[in-house]
Design brief:
It comes from Thermomonospora umbrina. This protein is of the alpha+beta class. It has one domain: Gcn5-related N-acetyltransferase (GNAT) (Aminopeptidase, 3-Layer(aba) Sandwich), CATH 3.40.630.30. It is built from six helices and seven strands. The termini are close together.
């Protein structure tokens, strides 16, 4: 069963280790020094940033990270995304990683994403959908989204996180389930 807890300052060394892993660094392209992790994750951990960083736990041990945000909190991002697809009011987005290579390729990515979706629907009643742009070359990422129930709704050029990537992104979307109808989950 996947459980969740918010990222705390004590988790920064672990996040730095994960961000330094080649399978993570390739797509996140983020500095991993303790200073950089503190700079990038500190405001969220302190509740000073609307982005919510959550550790995914398997049997009580952290194995992944999901960031979730209300797109309305990032107007520049909404403007860029709106050039490619409709961004409805209440839309949210996520970014995610599996930190330990030993957990990659075991089906945990889709399970983690699906578990976070249930958390979003439960904790953010105003959330209408979740939109996730993924660089087209990152097949494992967009496939994990599809396995978690997302549908590709658009393709278009967006600024990549890693400058070595092409601008082509696939936009994946899942809408809030109709009241009373829930798909079975891998974590239930």
């Amino acid at each position: 069963m996947i459980t969740w807890r918010r990222v705390h300052e004590r988790d920064f060394p672990l996040l730095g280790q994960w961000l330094a892993q080649p399978h993570v660094a390739r797509w996140w392209n983020q500095e991993h020094s303790i200073e950089a992790v503190t700079r990038d994750f500190g405001p969220s951990a302190a509740g000073l940033d609307p982005t919510e960083d959550h550790l995914a736990l398997l049997d009580g041990r952290p194995f992944g990270l999901v960031q979730r945000l209300r797109l309305a909190d990032e107007p520049r991002y909404v403007a860029e995304l709106s050039a490619v697809t409709d961004v409805p009011p209440g839309a949210m987005s996520i970014d995610y990683l599996i930190g330990d290579l030993r957990h990659v390729g075991r089906g945990l990515g889709p399970r983690m994403i699906e578990s976070m979706l249930h958390k979003i629907w439960d904790e953010h009643p105003q959330a209408t959908c979740v939109l996730v742009p993924v660089v087209a070359a990152n097949r494992p990422s967009w496939r994990a989204l599809e396995k978690a129930g997302f549908t590709r709704v658009a393709e278009g050029d967006l600024e990549p996180d890693n400058p070595i990537d092409d601008r082509l992104h696939y936009i994946q979307r899942i809408d809030r389930p109709v009241h009373g109808v829930r798909r079975p989950t891998a974590t239930a």
